[in-house]
Every structure is written in structure tokens, then in C-alpha cells.
Design brief:
By secondary structure, the chain is mainly beta. Helices cover 8% and strands 66% of the residues. The strands form 2 sheets. The protein has an 8-stranded antiparallel β-barrel with strand order 1-2-3-4-5-6-7-10. Strands 8-9 form a two-stranded antiparallel sheet. This is Outer membrane beta-barrel protein. It comes from Candidatus Polarisedimenticola svalbardensis. Keywords: Signal.
């Protein structure tokens, strides 16, 4: 995990410790999958990525609640091209996404509470790809790095979901969201950058506590 991600996690944890004294709300652990928006990942095994994150809602008795979500997505995969002297492409994609905005909950007096929301997304994308093969003889194996870079960018997110809440404060739910931001990565040995879509479509199950 890069230093930026560690710092972000520490800040979120410190903030969560004091939030119940500031406002009503809820916090949820999210587990799910992200489908990358980037078409360059279509032919790799890293397009669909596992997601883990935290969703936080703060209720200041307004029509909407403040939403602060932190999501981590990662996947790697190998693709083999050719039969004789095949080339093996290894791709590793990771992203960290901080979503800030608002959510509008409905049916607050019901156990089942749907919602929708949206706002600003800050997404950091890390991508690495290598190619390995053989030049046609013993001892002629090679491995070259095609891409090994990271960048962050601002964009947007929008989502919908539903939570089922119990009197004990425990809740379960489903969250669906879409995010978009363009990161600029530099291929190895190339003078210019390439725009990569860092966002994607997320679907996750949530479990948490309402205070």
C-alpha cells in the first residue's frame, strides 16, 4: 500500500473515533466489485476488481446527510498471446477512491430505507503491466515493463442503494454507484502521458451500525 493510502486510512480512522459525539449517522463496511471504465483493461484479467471500503453518513438534521466514502479496489491477471513463443502479459491495477457528497434517504421511519446521492470523487490509480517471453532459444527469456505509474484526479460519483435497519442499530444493505475521473499515466520509455479512466461501476454489500 502506497504512503498516500496509508495516510488516508489513518485520517479516516481518527475521524471515525469522534464522530458519534458530533452528529447522528451510520458507518458501514462495504465489500463488492468494481468494473473499470477503462477500455484498455478489457483484454486483461484486471478489468473486474475486488472492492473493500467504508461508507459514512452524518446526519445534521437536514434534508440530506453528509456522505464520506473511502473505497479500495485491486486486481491482477495474466493473459497469454500466441502459441509458438507466446507472450505473457501481467497486469496489476489498484485504485483508491475518496467520495465526498450528500445522500438523500427516504422512509426514515421504515426498516427498509432507500437512498440516492452523489458528489465529488478523488481517485488515485496505480497500474503496472509487464510482458514476458522467449526470443526463440535457451537462455533467451525476457521480461519488460510496459507501464508502472500512478496518478490521481478529481471527478464525480453518483449512487443509489437500500439499507435494512434493526432496533439494535445493526444494518445490512446494497450499494450501487458510478464514478469517473481521468488519471494520466506515462508508459515506460514513452515521452508523453496517456489518459486512463480511473473510475468505474461499483456494486457492494454493506454491513454496519447506526447510532
Amino acid at each position: 500500500m502506497r504512503i498516500e493510502k496509508r495516510i488516508c486510512v489513518i485520517i479516516i480512522m481518527l475521524c471515525l473515533a469522534g464522530l458519534p459525539a458530533l452528529a447522528a449517522g451510520d458507518v458501514h463496511l462495504l465489500l463488492g466489485q468494481k468494473g473499470s471504465n477503462e477500455s484498455r483493461f478489457d483484454d486483461t484479467e484486471a478489468k473486474d476488481q475486488a472492492v473493500v471500503g467504508l461508507m459514512l453518513n452524518l446526519d445534521f438534521e437536514k434534508p440530506v446527510v453528509l456522505a464520506v466514502d473511502l473505497l479500495f479496489a485491486s486486481e491482477d491477471g495474466t493473459r497469454v498471446v500466441g502459441v509458438a513463443d507466446p507472450l505473457v502479459f501481467f497486469t496489476d491495477v489498484q485504485s483508491m477512491e475518496l467520495d465526498l457528497g450528500v445522500r438523500k434517504p427516504f422512509r426514515s421511519d421504515s426498516r427498509f430505507q432507500p437512498y440516492f446521492g452523489g458528489g465529488i470523487a478523488w481517485i488515485q490509480l496505480d497500474a503496472r503491466q509487464t510482458v514476458s517471453g522467449n526470443l526463440g532459444g535457451p537462455g533467451l527469456d525476457f521480461t519488460d515493463t510496459i507501464l508502472d505509474d500512478s496518478d490521481s484526479a478529481f471527478g464525480f460519483w453518483a449512487g443509489v442503494g437500500i439499507m435494512a435497519r434493526w432496533d439494535s442499530g445493526f444494518s445490512l444493505g446494497v450499494d450501487l454507484r458510478y464514478s469517473s475521473a481521468e488519471a494520466r499515466l506515462t508508459p515506460v520509455g514513452e515521452p508523453g502521458t496517456i489518459d486512463f479512466e480511473a473510475g468505474g461501476s461499483h456494486l457492494g454489500m454493506t454491513a454496519g451500525y447506526v447510532w
